[in-house]
Amino acid sequence: MAENNSVSYHTYTPGNNAALNRDQVLDFLFKHLDEYGDQRQDIEKCMNYALSEDAGKGGSVLEARENGQVVGALILNNTGMTGYIPENILVYVAVHGSTRGKGVGKKLVQMAIDSTEGSIALHVEPQNPARHLYEKLGFTNKYLEYRLTR
Ligand SMILES: CC(C)(COP(=O)(O)OP(=O)(O)OC[C@H]1O[C@@H](n2cnc3c(N)ncnc32)[C@H](O)[C@@H]1OP(=O)(O)O)[C@@H](O)C(=O)NCCC(=O)NCCS
Fold first, then answer.
1. Does the pTM of the predicted model rise above 0.90?
2. Residues framing ligand 1 (Cβ under 6 A)
3. How far is the CA of 54 from the centre of ligand 1 (A)?
4. How far apart are CA 94 and CA 92, in angstroms?
5. Taking Cα atoms as reference points, which of 102, 46, 108, 123 lies closest to residue 72?
6. Mutate-to-test residue for ligand 1 from 38, 113, 133, 135, highest number of ligand atoms within 8 A of CB
7. Which residue puts its alpha carbon closest to atom 48 of ligand 1?
8. 47 with 78: CB under 8 angstroms?
9. CA dihedral angle for residue 34, residue 37, residue 82, residue 58, rounded to 10 degrees
10. Among protein residues, the one whose CA lies closest to atom 30 of ligand 1
């Protein structure tokens, strides 16, 4: 895969996010998650949790920029649990439609893996090609996920 050297990557955490333009990243995720997205206000809750300094919360927000524009973003939440539940949940990752297939998504997920300790859970719809990305980075799907939605 070609390395795209014009893309810069940034990691924001609870103690280091003054330089983050929250609205730009939220707008980006709301638009580029495509059909796998959520309401903007829910993505914002996830970001606020990731950047919270409250005990048991936290995580990271990663962004990729090219020519000043956001071309990729990822949000990871710490669960506050350990051992019986994975320590982290990778909640959102998206890359701009015109930037896909150049390794940006893989780099963001690899950075998220490197930025935290413990296991990382995520869910992905069976038909989403993002599965290929996760599997290439070592994620497995031993479990089925069931939800009581209400
Ligand atoms: C999923 C997504 C983030 C991948 O980003 P990307 O920058 O295009 O992915 P990469 O170029 O880093 O690809 C990483 C690997 O996954 C594979 N891959 C990525 N998309 C693929 C696809 N549609 N089909 C097959 N393989 C794919 C690549 O071949 C690559 O493997 P390689 O390193 O062996 O070449 C991007 O497609 C996206 O934003 N999708 C819409 C939002 C979404 O579905 N998010 C995930 C659910 S929350």
1. yes
2. 1, 32-34, 36, 92-95, 100-106, 124, 128-130, 132-133, 136
3. 33
4. 7
5. 108
6. 133
7. 92
8. no
9. 100
10. 133
Q: Whose CA is nearest to atom 40 of ligand 1?
A: 94
- Give the span between the Cα atoms of 83 and 96, in whole angstroms: 35
Nearest CA to ligand 1 atom 23: 129
CATH of 7-136, one of 3.30.70.920, 3.40.630.30, 3.40.50.2300, 3.30.70.270: 3.40.630.30
C-alpha of residue 56 to centroid of ligand 1, in Å: 31
Summarize pLDDT for 52-96 with one digit per residue, the tens. 999 999 999 999 999 999 999 999 999 999 999 999 999 999 999
Distance CA 138, CA 103 (A): 16
Tens digits of residue pLDDT in 1-60: 445 579 999 999 999 999 999 999 999 999 999 999 999 999 999 999 999 999 999 999
